[in-house]
């Protein structure tokens, strides 16, 4: 297991609370909340170690499209970058619904 | 050489009751007897080895279909008999290796046989019978749940042969893909994973750990010692709520079941509509 | 010559049916409660997680794999507890097990105070969580205690849908239920197939032979031998309706765990020296009932 922390500058309104996913094989859980400041903070707990750069790239691409200031907590059980992107998208949709 | 049929559970059952516990109509693995304890009648129940077990996957102290269903019938009879009078204490003398593993068992619903005896012990407790588990040997997995888990008070011998656990070490190692050495190492820091009874006691579930001299050979002095412990536990149970809350309110739980206590506090707070 | 439609009723039903099995625990709890009444307790943002998994380098889930929600069923106060089979195999650890025990306890207290609160437990569980071994054993005993106390006040319904099934400690919880609802995909068994094969050998149990395994513990077999009250196709609305129907029926005439005379009669009349099949039992019990 590895714990990763990232911080990104944000520009838009704060995200609302959302929860999606399950910590099951090849899947992940995302807890999204409004950020305590104007930045987006991401904490990742992942079962697969050594993929910090991949996570950073996936998150940067996602936050480029959705720059809401959010506090994001991810519990990952070996999801592929595609699944991660999908779940992040779902979390945003839920936070807007 | 020791006789495997004369295990600790049988020896202590016989020493405490002066009876073999054989009852007409019961399977040979089930011991049930009434005996004096602290000036009142108490009912003792236990599962013993049985060389003539009908079911091939039982006979070595396993809790199987017969143990579950006949045990239930016997316990229900005690509850019914005492319905309108004083409630006799029920002492469940535990030395049982596990539940029975077999095809017939699953087909005939061993899950229900085990649930039935659990319900009988739980109903006995809530009806006011002090239910005391005396764990003298192994009490593993389904055997713990079926025979000991519902007791108002659990007393275990403080002895290396006493084992309470979810699963034997070799099987747990295979299933969690760890080595036995790794499991031992984990047990040093993860208290609920440890295999020694001292670690189990830390979790606060036991009423007491009893250091008994020569636990394989009950003697006059040790039988008196165990009886005193039972009498004390019975009195304690009678003076307390008929729930299992005492386990969560123990000092052990305060130290090692912080998660459980937090769940209770938060859920109680959130339960009522705000 | 008659015209045979390409889409049979069955196919149409399949195409419009929503799966219950594919729902995660939270969605199952929502499915079981009347629309708009769902209120989750100790939800993800409360972050009450397993304290024992991180110590072993295992990723936690924010609800520890157990969703507890209050709401209404058929207009009556209810609590639903749903286990998530995908997280750690639906295994029972300290936190998720305690959530279950507490939900039952608080429902019992409400019933004792005259607030009739019903309970449904949606199970997917491989049994005790071995990483929290003895904590699981203790908590499971507390779950049973509260189930036995609660079912005196209200029917307590267990739903087993699959794909994980219901094994180990939670199979006994199903045994304690007032009613059991199963799908054909579901399994209900005290010991897992692999464990039986490991302990008793291939003559006793072949864990890799799926039709054999389901012939022992699958929903259809469990329903045919009266270990389950309702057998369903995998249909979310059908599960909800079945649960409502059972609550309308009220308490069962006799709890399964009180049927010791019947089971002792059956045990006496069988020959345990031979190996048995699912079909043998169905036939023997049918004959015995006559």
Query: How many domain regions of chain A?
Result: 1
Q: Do you know the CATH architecture of chain A? A: 2-Layer Sandwich
Summed up, the helix count of chain B is 12
Straight-line distance between termini of chain B: 67 Å
Strand content of chain A: 35-45%
Summed up, the domain count of chain B is 2
CATH class value of the largest domain in chain B: Alpha Beta
Question: How does this structure look, described?
Answer:
The complex is a heterotrimer of chains A (97), B (274) and C (290). Chain A has 97 residues and is α/β, with parallel strands linked by helices. Chain A has one domain (2-96): Ribosomal Protein S5, domain 2, CATH 3.30.230. Chain A contains 2 helices and 6 strands. Chain A has helices at residues 52-65, 81-96; strands spanning 2-9, 12-14, 18-21, 27-34, 39-46, 68-77. In chain A, helix 1 packs parallel to helix 2 (81-96). The longest helix of chain A has 16 residues, at 81-96. The relative contact order of chain A is 0.31. With 274 residues, chain B is an alpha/beta fold. Chain B folds into 2 domains: 8-243, 2-enoyl-CoA Hydratase, Chain A, domain 1 (Alpha-Beta Complex), CATH 3.90.226; 244-274, no CATH class. Helix content of chain B is 45%, strand content 16%. Chain B is built from 12 helices and 7 strands. In chain B, helix 2 (65-81) packs parallel to helix 4 and helix 4 (110-127) runs parallel beside helix 5. The longest helix of chain B has 19 residues, at 220-238. Chain C is an alpha/beta fold. Chain C is built from 11 helices and 9 strands. In chain C, 41% of the residues lie in helices and 14% in strands. In chain C, 59% of the residues are buried. The longest helix of chain C has 19 residues, at 94-112. Chain C has 2 domains: 18-258, 2-enoyl-CoA Hydratase, Chain A, domain 1 (Alpha-Beta Complex), CATH 3.90.226; 259-290, no CATH class.
SSE arrangement:
The complex is a heterotrimer of chains A (97), B (274) and C (290).
Chain A: E1 2-9, E2 12-14, E3 18-21, E4 27-34, E5 39-46, H1 52-65, E6 68-77, H2 81-96
Parallel strand pairs in A: 2-6, 5-6
Antiparallel strand pairs in A: 1-5, 3-4, 4-6
Helix pairs in contact in A: 1-2
Chain B: H1 8-17, E1 30-37, E2 40-47, H2 65-81, E3 90-96, H3 103-107, H4 110-127, E4 131-140, H5 142-148, E5 153-157, E6 163-165, H6 169-175, H7 180-189, H8 197-202, E7 208-210, H9 220-238, H10 245-249, H11 251-256, H12 258-271
Parallel strand pairs in B: 2-3, 3-4, 4-5, 4-6, 5-7
Antiparallel strand pairs in B: 1-2
Helix pairs in contact in B: 2-4, 4-5
Chain C: H1 9-16, H2 25-32, E1 39-41, E2 66-73, E3 76-83, H3 94-112, E4 118-123, H4 133-150, E5 156-160, E6 166-167, H5 169-176, E7 179-183, E8 188-189, H6 193-200, H7 210-217, H8 219-224, E9 230-232, H9 236-249, H10 260-269, H11 278-289
Parallel strand pairs in C: 3-4, 4-5, 5-7, 6-8, 7-9
Antiparallel strand pairs in C: 1-2, 2-3
Helix pairs in contact in C: 3-4, 4-5
């Amino acid at each position: 297991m590895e714990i990763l922390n990232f911080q990104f500058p944000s520009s838009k309104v704060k995200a609302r609370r959302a929860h999606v996913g399950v910590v099951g094989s090849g899947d992940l859980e995302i807890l999204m909340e409004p950020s305590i400041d104007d930045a987006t903070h991401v904490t990742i707990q992942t079962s697969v170690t050594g993929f910090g750069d991949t996570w950073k790239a996936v998150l940067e691409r996602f936050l480029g499209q959705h720059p809401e200031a959010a506090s994001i907590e991810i519990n990952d059980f070996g999801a592929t970058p595609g699944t991660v992107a999908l779940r992040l998208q779902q979390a945003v949709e839920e936070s807007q619904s | 050489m020791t006789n495997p049929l004369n295990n600790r559970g049988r020896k202590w059952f016989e020493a405490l009751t002066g009876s073999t516990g054989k009852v007409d109509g019961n399977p040979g693995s089930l011991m049930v007897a009434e005996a004096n304890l602290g000036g009142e009648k108490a009912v003792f129940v236990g599962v013993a080895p049985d060389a003539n077990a009908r079911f091939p996957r039982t006979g070595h102290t396993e809790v199987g279909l017969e143990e579950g269903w006949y045990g239930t019938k016997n316990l229900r009879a005690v509850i019914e008999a005492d319905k309108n009078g004083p409630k006799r204490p029920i002492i469940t003398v535990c030395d049982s290796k596990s539940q029975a593993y077999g095809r017939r068992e699953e087909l005939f619903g061993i899950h229900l046989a085990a649930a039935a005896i659990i319900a009988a012990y739980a109903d006995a407790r809530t009806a006011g019978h002090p239910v005391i588990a005396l764990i003298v040997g192994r009490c593993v997995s389904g055997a713990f749940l079926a025979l000991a888990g519902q007791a108002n008070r659990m007393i275990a011998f403080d002895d290396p042969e006493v084992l309470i656990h979810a699963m034997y070490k070799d099987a747990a190692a295979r299933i969690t893909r760890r080595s036995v050495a790794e499991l031992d190492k984990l047990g040093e820091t993860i208290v609920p994973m440890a295999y020694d009874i001292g670690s189990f006691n830390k979790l606060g579930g036991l009423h007491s750990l009893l250091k008994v001299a020569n636990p394989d050979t009950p003697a006059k002095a040790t039988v008196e010692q165990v009886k005193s412990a039972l009498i004390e536990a019975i009195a304690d149970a009678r003076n307390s709520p008929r729930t299992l809350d005492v386990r969560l309110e123990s000092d052990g739980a305060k130290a090692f079941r912080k998660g459980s206590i937090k769940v209770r506090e938060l859920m109680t707070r959130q339960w009522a509509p705000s | 010559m008659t015209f045979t439609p390409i889409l049979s009723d069955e196919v149409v039903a399949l195409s419009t049916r929503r799966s219950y099995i594919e729902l995660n625990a939270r969605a199952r709890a929502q499915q079981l409660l009347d629309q708009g009444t769902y209120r989750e307790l100790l939800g993800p943002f409360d972050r009450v997680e397993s304290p024992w998994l991180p110590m072993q380098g295992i990723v936690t889930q924010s609800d520890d794999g157990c969703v507890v929600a209050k709401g209404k069923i058929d207009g009556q106060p209810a609590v639903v507890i749903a286990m998530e089979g995908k997280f750690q195999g639906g295994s029972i650890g300290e936190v998720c097990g305690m959530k279950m025990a507490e939900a039952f306890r608080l429902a019992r207290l409400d019933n004792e105070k005259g607030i009739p609160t019903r309970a449904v437990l949606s199970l997917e569980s491989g049994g005790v969580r071995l990483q929290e071994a003895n904590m699981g054993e203790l908590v499971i005993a507390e779950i049973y205690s509260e189930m036995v106390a609660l079912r005196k006040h209200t029917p307590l319904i267990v739903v087993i849908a699959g794909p994980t099934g219901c094994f180990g400690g939670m199979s006994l919880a199903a045994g304690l239920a007032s009613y059991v609802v199963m799908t054909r995909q579901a399994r209900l068994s005290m010991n897992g197939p692999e464990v039986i094969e490991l302990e008793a050998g291939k003559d006793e149990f072949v864990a890799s032979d799926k039709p054999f395994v389901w012939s022992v513990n699958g929903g259809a077999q469990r329903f045919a031998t009266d270990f389950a009250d309702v057998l369903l196709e995998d249909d979310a609305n059908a599960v909800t309706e079945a649960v409502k129907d059972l609550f309308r029926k009220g308490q069962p005439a006799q709890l399964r765990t009180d049927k010791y005379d019947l089971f002792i009669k059956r045990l006496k009349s069988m020959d345990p020296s031979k190996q048995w099949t699912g079909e043998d039992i169905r036939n023997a019990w049918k004959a015995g009932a006559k």
